Recover the amino acids of this structure.
């Protein structure tokens, strides 16, 4: 992506139609029955949700389906938010092949080694908005993008240290010293591959949606085990946590208009054209009205973590770039997340003001060294879309996990049952023994990933 | 600062002269004898360094001087880096007056209450580069900017919660609810005031340097105690740490081209004109040469935390936007820090490429609740310029502190002696009992701030 492209794409010079008040959410696309999916063999399967025929939540058809490996489980139900469940999930074995480089300096061709060279596991949750189209595309595509990106750097990943030059020739003797000084490790290549895969997938989704006349976007939360490490990549407001006997550790941060306020305001400062004169980039405790004019009110700008006071001018009465609090916070009055995939066509209702320039598709990646962690049998990662975290805190989830697992040691499906139990505890069911009192009206999807023995991937090449 | 201003200022359209290889550091201004300083009464004093007449480090004339309160001590010596010491320091009592607002709605005038309303303490270290001019200006100016910014919001600071409207009338009944939902506290106003004060001081320095035909910049590290809290604001590569009997806690982060790589690369991505076609924004493990062309080499771009490989093109052979490692890392081949004050005129040698658009004057602010901390008698904050931290880790400093203080309980000057001892331990002196083996050739300035009883400021209004 070049700056020219950025400007051509996002800074149109033409006149804009008069805007109307922005809508609260991207409107859903017409109902389309979701495809049901396969997950077997060496390519990840995708799992999605059924449409909801009646008022009570309905479990996904993936329930009870044999997964490619006995490690993760996605429980996806359709609650009361939309006519169709916009959450999608994918999981499976990740098989990285190896390219064999020719030894001749001028040799341009590469031979693809037919055998798997490195294997890992892959879990992904996609929470759609504006319809399920982007989430379905992401569930079908992202693992392929990731495999491709990993195969492009796998030679570097298995070297004692990633070499300066990938092809293994023309190396200066001092190159390894520079790599060492920069502290570049194999895991940095996996982080880079995850970042690139998210961007590549975003481009694919943009092309596919445009070609098929569909719209929408989705958040993406991905966990990958590879070479003894767990990678958690997050773009959006889903969350992954590590739960152990004595520890609860967040493995991701949420990216919303509130958490990314300064980045978003900074872009609006550098490119005020993106707001088309219809929004103010400043943050105020509430939306200002005419009788605030001339008053000194609390505000924050892009460079401020703290608050200050300013004298209200006419331009401060415009609709705020980021407005609302918590779950109600919206970017340009439209979107509740600031990172994710898709949304290439999303505009503020009845205007030409585009959301995409303010969104990032690149995830934040956390790395967990499982060899160092020495996971015990009941150490797990819980991945879930925001519907779960809206009503349960990390600590509440950990309490539910710790009260469930020890009593079900003999149950071979206990991790699946735990995922279901976590979802039920958000649904206000009377028969839920762990009911915490709050009810989620959002889609909820949960993966429970036991970490015990996950480090084995290291020895697979 | 508007975007128009930013573009007018930093995006000139004219042709540029052919650049030469960038210089390693901003060149020093001609020697100018530094002023010695005042520090008494209610306005902070400034402390600076003597010029070095011979090869051995010389202590500042501030040594032994009675400070306005018995709490901090700046030991500033001139080591072997430059002909004059570019470090500057200031400390003193911070006295905030109160504006009295008229009760009539149309009443525009304000009465300045003649008495101090809130008091706190202020310590600041400024590490100059390209000459001491900016550091001297900062030491003379920043505390006034801060006092002005605090006086503008002091009504909000002493309210149970900062009010939506400052002047105390025209408040909607629901306003306090919005302030509460946003979680805005009195300390957020102090953070905002510190952020604004740094920016205001930067503008003053820009005007003063231009008017007097001087150049240069400086880092700024400020500690303020106010209303039972300690605020540490940092823009640059100085550092403050909290040392207690069982705890060492960083109170600041360093801002260098390496730590702010993504922000700097992002700006170069959005505004490639800023590089005038002479630099590449990409990071490589080492500078690329002609025989790297066509090879796949390790690289990072603005959106990447991890690393990947790319095929080297001609444009990748340009000088990197950020080059070098650790202490050698330079922004545009010129500057070792990415935040600070001044540098308005700084250009890459013999080009029109400006450094200022890549620099931030806004600090990162850390807040320490001293009432909650309940500081013991030997709990201190150590503030020091990078010369100290280049040769001593946080843990080494803590060890020196803990070995020194308990044995000197009766010495009324023990905190001053500790500051001196810390500096001596970086100078490779044979008689230093705590010599750790490494020698700093940079300027070194240290404040030692005992926290015991610092919370008393709360009751002063």
């Amino acid at each position: 992506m070049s700056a020219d492209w950025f400007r051509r794409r996002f800074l149109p010079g033409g006149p804009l139609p008069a805007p109307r008040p922005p809508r609260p959410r991207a409107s859903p696309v017409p109902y389309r029955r979701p495809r049901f999916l396969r997950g077997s063999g060496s390519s990840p399967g995708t799992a999605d949700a059924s449409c909801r025929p009646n008022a009570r939540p309905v479990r996904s058809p993936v329930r009870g389906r044999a997964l490619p490996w006995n490690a993760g489980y996605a429980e996806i139900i359709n609650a009361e938010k939309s006519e169709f469940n916009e959450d999608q999930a994918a999981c499976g074995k990740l098989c990285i092949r190896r390219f064999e480089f020719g030894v001749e300096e001028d040799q341009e061709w590469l031979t693809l080694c037919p055998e798997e060279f490195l294997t890992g596991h892959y879990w992904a949750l996609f929470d759609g908005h504006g319809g399920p189209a982007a989430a379905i595309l992401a569930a079908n595509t992202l693992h392929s993008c990731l495999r491709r990106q990993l195969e492009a750097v796998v030679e570097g990943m298995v070297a004692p240290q990633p070499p300066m030059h990938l092809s293994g020739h023309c190396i200066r003797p001092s190159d390894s010293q520079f790599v060492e000084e920069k502290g570049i490790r194999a895991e940095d290549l996996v982080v880079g591959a995850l970042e690139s895969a998210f961007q590549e997938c975003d481009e694919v989704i943009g092309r596919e949606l445009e070609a098929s006349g569909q719209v929408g976007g989705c958040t993406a939360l991905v966990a990958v085990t590879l070479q003894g490490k767990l990678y958690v990549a997050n773009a959006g407001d889903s969350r992954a946590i590590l739960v152990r006997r004595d520890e609860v550790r967040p493995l991701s941060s949420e990216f919303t208009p509130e958490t990314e306020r300064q980045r978003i305001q900074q872009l609006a400062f550098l490119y005020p054209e993106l707001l088309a004169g219809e929004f103010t980039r400043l943050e105020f405790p509430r939306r200002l009205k005419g009788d605030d004019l001339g008053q000194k009110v609390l505000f924050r700008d892009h460079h401020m973590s703290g608050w200050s006071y300013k004298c209200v001018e006419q331009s401060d009465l415009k609709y705020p770039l980021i407005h609302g609090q918590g779950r109600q916070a919206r970017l340009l009055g439209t979107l509740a997340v600031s990172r994710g995939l898709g949304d290439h066509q999303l505009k503020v209702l009845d205007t030409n003001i585009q959301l995409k320039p303010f969104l990032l598709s690149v995830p934040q990646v956390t790395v967990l060294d499982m060899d160092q962690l020495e996971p015990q049998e009941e150490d797990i990662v819980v991945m879930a879309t925001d519907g779960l975290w809206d009503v349960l805190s990390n600590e509440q989830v950990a309490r539910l996990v710790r009260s469930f697992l020890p009593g079900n040691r003999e149950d071979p499906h206990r991790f699946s049952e735990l995922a279901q139990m976590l979802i039920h505890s958000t649904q206000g069911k009377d028969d839920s023994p762990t009911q915490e009192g709050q009810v989620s009206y959002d889609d909820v999807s949960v993966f429970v990933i036991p970490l015990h023995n996950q480090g084995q991937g290291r020895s697979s090449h």
Q: What stands out?
A: Chain A touches chain B through 57 residues (CB under 8 Å). The first strand of chain A starts at residue 45 and ends at 48. The radius of gyration of chain A is 24 Å. The CA atoms of residues 1 and 266 of chain A lie 19 Å apart.
